[in-house]
Write a sequence for this structure.
């Protein structure tokens, strides 16, 4: 990976390499990731990520809790986009079970999960700026809008982050008209807010200096590692399940999936997430206009919820990439095996490659740019 | 405006704290420097005289020792509340009335926390580091005291003929403390932070010093009091606007508004030769010539020189601010304690009172560099309103009214009006600069270390050299600082 | 709760599917299983796995170049290593299962499946995870070490015969915190 910012320290003076432990308690690792860095001066030569500090045995719990109990737990798999984890499992279970999901429920699912995508990207934006050292100031602006969305979530699901809103067969609750009009108001003013972020960040010379040409992810390398989501779309691979393997009502909606035309650096990954937020906003708008009347659940939400025997894999496009769920059911009230395919887990595996030959200051700039959520990695 | 209420709260908070800081320092200085010697003067013994003199001599150091902790406490609060406003938050508002005592509580907490020395650390160096870091900010600021108090007799003792030189020398010592702390902590993050700090301080000291040397060149003196005095007489005389290059404009305006129209008439009637002759030597005449519509090569040359000089000094001021931010490790140059990379850099392992001292020194350093900026560029304790404008706005009447009001205090020597006004202006200006630093902190991300070095060595240092050389030449064409 | 794996749907698939046929053309025998929710599912012998993967990944018409996930399943009488294959460019999907019979596993040892991570980096962490949780040893893996559990963890939690540790944090212990 030859980049112009790569620092060439061909060893005229050979010194010992330094082993440094970054994390698990480090102010910038977004949770508890431990990186064992081998440094040559300030240049990272080798990285070994140590995971598992947040391991909560979600898969084990999946096969030891009933479907109904487990639904409430899986928001914790990726706490920043709980709607997507719920949706992935609900879809997998529906595929296996063969139950119908009412159209209204599908629209509501799309709506809340696109809202969730926005909150997730907003939080990423704020924390990423912190990773780059803008400790105060800008990072709090995205939280202002995120707060509004969280309030909407609280109103519809009763919780701000652990929603348990999308259920197997449908959604939990019908939104009130007031909620819909609040959401509409939000979608109208949100593009202006994104313009505001861009005005502060996109042209900021220090930000450009820190991100342009840093951590270039080659397309082939990304595909080899199975990277998905905005990170790989910023490197020019056109994979977005909402379009390539359309599910739910996405085929009926008009939206762009921004795809880069070259190998992306951290700046590209930033700008593509910003664009995605705008697109999500458009999707919510359309859903609000097209929302039909009708039932909201095709399956009775009872404690003895069962899924027919069979096995199946279903995935949704989460803010971080392909979030898949592989279910084997034996027809009882709990799963025989549940396997999560978490985008953060797969995206994180490329970190050692990306960090190679970058200075230690870029570790967090790159790590932040691939948007990894540690609970999603460790489950 | 949505934030109006918050801004108002910050204003009242600032005013209250200024009163506290001012009152404490003022009373301490009065008691030690004036009241005790006055009382002792009634005794006719050598012991009494020696005690009185000692007290007077101790006043400057006492004032600093009282000032620094209270001021740093307030600055932390000011920064936190200011940042809260920039970031649409509320900031600390729980401890005491509306959060006024937040940092006081923090300070108490830090003082009573367990003081941990990590295993394997060099205990002696580990303890020495905060002291080495903090001490220079006390003694380094001493010469400034004479300048900011309008050369009050109690503070004349701390003035040095080479004041700015001393200040700069002192301000480069803290980096030793940082390296010591980083090395002694037995922590890799600390070590990297300390070494970064050394590299950064060395690189950014050069543009910092060169920009100040530019000002000294303009002033023809290293004495901060001298530099401050030269800038007296309103904003147009300040170094940041060319160091008296606009004095001509100033006096022209003064002439115009002091109903001295005949003088103007007379001057405009002068012959071309006379204007030419005076243009090089006296910018006042040049500006008058311009004002009167005279056109000549000489006037143009003089005006160009004035513009170049102003631009250069403005750039020098910018360079100073940049260098100073790097010197005191503030965003965007806070590499030594880069949180997202080095946890907390050199002070990662510090806790309790040692950390408190690091923290205190950091904010004191910010205050000191802001004061240097105020004295060197913004006229120290000078009122920004020129005398002629002040006269029009009723300044003298106001001044005499205030004097009348304070006359009982003046009688017991509690208040010395020139010093009081100088100090008030200095505080206002310094907090203006501090506010600017807070604003920068609320806006910019952090540089990477190699970008920082690039920026320092490849941009700032050449620029400061160019500015320096330009000022050397421009100064020849403009008679800056009459009488120098 | 019954401990039997998914009961197979009654209708058996007729003949090899697209990918099965492709592999057959290249001389790799596969055994078609019941489709899992409309996705072609094949069983393959561990020895042919690497060759089959290389073929599927490299061919221009199939181009299953996206390894979505590697899962381990402790079925009734086999240990399954399940590979979800997608494509970055087309809509092909395939599920490959490598089954190791429990009776073939030597007592006290782990079932063996060849590793893909030598030529497919995406498999690296998934295989580590499966090793960690289900206890399938991927031979040829460059760094097969526990990834989610701590390095000295005892047992493989997603095995059906896994016994939860009884300690102070566990509600089965008498002095439990809960």
């Amino acid at each position: 990976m030859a980049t112009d910012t790569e620092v060439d320290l061909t060893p005229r003076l050979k010194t010992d390499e330094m082993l440094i432990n970054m994390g698990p308690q480090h102010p910038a690792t977004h949770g508890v990731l431990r990186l064992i860095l081998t440094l040559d001066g300030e240049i990272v030569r080798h990285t070994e990520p140590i995971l598992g500090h947040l391991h909560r045995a979600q898969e084990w719990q999946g096969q030891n809790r009933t479907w109904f109990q487990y639904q409430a737990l899986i928001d914790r798999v990726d706490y920043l986009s709980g709607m997507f984890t719920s949706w992935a499992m609900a879809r997998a279970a529906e595929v296996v079970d063969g139950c119908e999901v009412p159209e209204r429920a599908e629209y509501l699912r799309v709506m809340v999960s696109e809202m969730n995508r926005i909150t997730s990207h907003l939080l990423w934006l704020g924390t990423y700026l912190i990773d780059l050292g803008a400790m105060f100031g800008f990072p709090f602006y995205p939280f202002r809008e995120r707060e509004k969305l969280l309030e909407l979530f609280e109103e519809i699901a009763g919780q701000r982050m652990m929603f348990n809103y999308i259920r197997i067969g449908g959604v939990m609750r019908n939104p009130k008209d007031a909620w819909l009009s609040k959401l509409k108001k939000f979608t109208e003013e949100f593009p202006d807010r994104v313009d505001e972020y861009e005005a502060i960040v996109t042209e900021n010379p220090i930000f450009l200096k820190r991100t342009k040409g840093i951590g270039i992810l080659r397309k082939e390398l990304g595909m080899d590692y199975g990277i998905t989501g905005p990170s790989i779309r910023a490197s020019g691979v056109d994979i977005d399940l909402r379009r390539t393997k359309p599910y739910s009502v996405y085929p009926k909606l008009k939206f762009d999936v921004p795809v880069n035309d070259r190998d992306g650096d951290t700046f590209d990954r930033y700008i593509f997430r910003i664009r995605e937020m705008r697109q999500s906003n458009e999707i919510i708008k359309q859903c609000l206009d097209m929302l039909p009347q009708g039932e909201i659940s095709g399956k009775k939400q009872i404690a003895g919820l069962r899924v027919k025997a069979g096995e199946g894999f279903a995935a949704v496009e989460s803010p971080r990439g392909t979030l898949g769920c592989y279910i084997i059911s034996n027809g009882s009230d709990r799963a025989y095996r549940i396997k999560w395919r978490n985008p953060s887990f797969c995206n994180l595996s490329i970190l050692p490659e990306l960090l190679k030959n970058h200075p230690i200051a870029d570790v967090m700039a790159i790590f932040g740019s691939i948007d990894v959520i540690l609970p999603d990695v460790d489950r | 405006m949505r934030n109006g209420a918050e801004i108002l709260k910050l204003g009242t908070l600032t005013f209250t704290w200024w009163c506290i800081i001012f009152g404490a320092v003022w009373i301490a200085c009065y008691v030690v420097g004036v009241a005790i010697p006055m009382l002792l003067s009634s005794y006719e013994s050598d012991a009494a005289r020696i005690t009185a003199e000692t007290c007077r001599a101790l006043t400057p150091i006492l004032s600093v020792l009282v000032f620094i902790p209270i001021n740093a406490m307030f600055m932390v609060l000011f920064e936190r509340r200011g940042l809260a406003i920039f970031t649409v938050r509320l900031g600390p508002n729980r401890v005491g009335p509306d959060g006024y005592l937040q940092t006081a509580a923090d300070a108490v907490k830090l003082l009573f926390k367990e003081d941990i020395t990590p295993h394997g650390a060099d205990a002696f160096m580990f303890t020495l580091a905060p002291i080495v870091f903090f001490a220079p900010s006390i003694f380094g600021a001493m010469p400034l005291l004479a300048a900011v108090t309008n050369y009050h007799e109690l503070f004349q003792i701390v003035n040095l003929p080479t004041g700015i030189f001393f200040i700069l020398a002192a301000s480069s010592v803290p980096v030793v403390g940082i390296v010591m702390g980083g090395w002694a902590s037995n922590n890799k993050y600390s070590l990297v932070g300390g070494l970064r700090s050394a590299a950064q301080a060395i690189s950014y000291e050069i543009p910092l010093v060169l920009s100040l040397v530019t000002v000294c060149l303009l002033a023809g003196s290293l004495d901060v009091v001298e530099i401050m005095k030269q800038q007296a007489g309103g904003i147009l005389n300040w170094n940041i606007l060319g160091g008296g290059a606009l004095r001509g404009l100033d006096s022209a305006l003064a002439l115009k508004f002091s109903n001295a129209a005949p003088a103007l008439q007379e001057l405009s009637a002068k012959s071309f030769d006379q204007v030419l002759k005076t243009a090089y030597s006296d910018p006042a005449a040049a500006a008058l010539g311009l004002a009167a519509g005279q056109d000549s090569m000489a006037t143009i040359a003089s005006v160009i020189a004035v513009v170049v000089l102003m631009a250069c000094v403005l750039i020098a001021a910018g360079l100073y601010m940049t260098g100073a931010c790097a010197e005191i490790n503030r965003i965007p140059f806070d590499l030594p304690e880069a949180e997202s990379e080095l946890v907390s850099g050199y002070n990662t392992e510090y806790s309790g009172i040692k950390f408190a001292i690091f923290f205190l020194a950091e904010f004191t350093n910010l205050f000191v560099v802001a004061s240097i900026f105020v004295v060197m560029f913004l006229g120290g304790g000078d009122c920004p309103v020129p005398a002629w404008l002040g006269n029009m706005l009723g300044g003298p009447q106001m001044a005499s009214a205030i004097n009348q009001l304070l006359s009982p205090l003046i009688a017991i020597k509690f208040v010395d009006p020139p010093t009081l006004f100088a100090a008030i202006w200095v505080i206002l200006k310094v907090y203006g600069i501090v506010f600017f630093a807070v604003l920068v902190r609320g806006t910019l991300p952090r540089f990477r270390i190699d970008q920082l070095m690039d920026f320092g060595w490849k941009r700032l240092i050449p620029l400061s050299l160019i500015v320096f050389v330009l000022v050397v030449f421009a100064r020849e064409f403009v008679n800056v600082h009459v009488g120098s | 709760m019954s401990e039997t794996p998914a009961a197979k749907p009654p209708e058996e698939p007729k003949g090899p599917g697209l990918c099965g046929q492709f592999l057959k053309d290249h001389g790799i025998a596969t055994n078609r299983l019941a489709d899992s929710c409309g996705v072609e599912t094949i069983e393959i012998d561990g020895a042919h796995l690497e060759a089959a993967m290389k073929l599927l990944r490299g061919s221009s018409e199939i181009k299953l170049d996206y390894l979505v996930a590697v899962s381990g399943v402790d079925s009734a009488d086999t240990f399954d290593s399940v590979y979800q294959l997608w494509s970055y460019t087309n809509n092909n999907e395939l599920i490959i299962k490598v089954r190791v019979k429990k009776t073939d596993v030597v007592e006290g040892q782990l079932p063996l499946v060849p590793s893909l991570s030598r030529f497919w980096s995406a498999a690296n962490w998934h295989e580590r995870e499966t090793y960690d949780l289900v206890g399938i040893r991927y031979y040829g893996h460059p760094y097969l070490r526990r990834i989610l559990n701590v390095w000295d963890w005892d047992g493989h939690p997603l095995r059906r015969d896994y016994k939860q540790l009884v300690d102070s944090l566990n509600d089965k212990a008498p002095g439990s915190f809960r």
